[in-house]
Amino acid sequence: MIIEQKYPLPPFTEETAQEKVQLAEDAWNSQDPEKVAKAYTVDTEWRNRSQFINGRKEVIAFLSDKWKKEKNYKLKKELWAFSDNRIAVRFEYEYQNDQGQWFRAYGNENWEFNEHGLMQRRYASINDLPIAANERRL
């Protein structure tokens, strides 16, 4: 039996927590739902805004839909806190809707990892702010 692992593994140090955050940022900026989903357990639990998502298949469907709607997506994550197998991040991302309106989304995520470095829980609180194209930062 092959055990999936996603380095770095917990317990996290400041260095490995920073690395985990950067890996997540890079994966999400790829806008590749399959690639992103590989960082999560098969039975991962998410809360994204008011939506509850369970398992990799739902993650892939959610992200596929997300990036169809959110054009020119660019994300920046920042380590906020960490301990043992948990990491908290703050983030912002910018995207454009189908009508060409730009938005900046701000949020916080709480992550919990299993011993193999796969995220088993992700809870995200996110707010969107309409912005003008000249206000973009990312």
UniProtKB/TrEMBL annotation:
Gene3D superfamilies xref list: 3.10.450.50
Domain of life according to the entry: Bacteria
InterPro entries per UniProt: DUF1348, NTF2-like_dom_sf
Stretches of the chain forming a coiled coil according to its record: none
One Pfam match: DUF1348
Name of protein: Nuclear transport factor 2 family protein
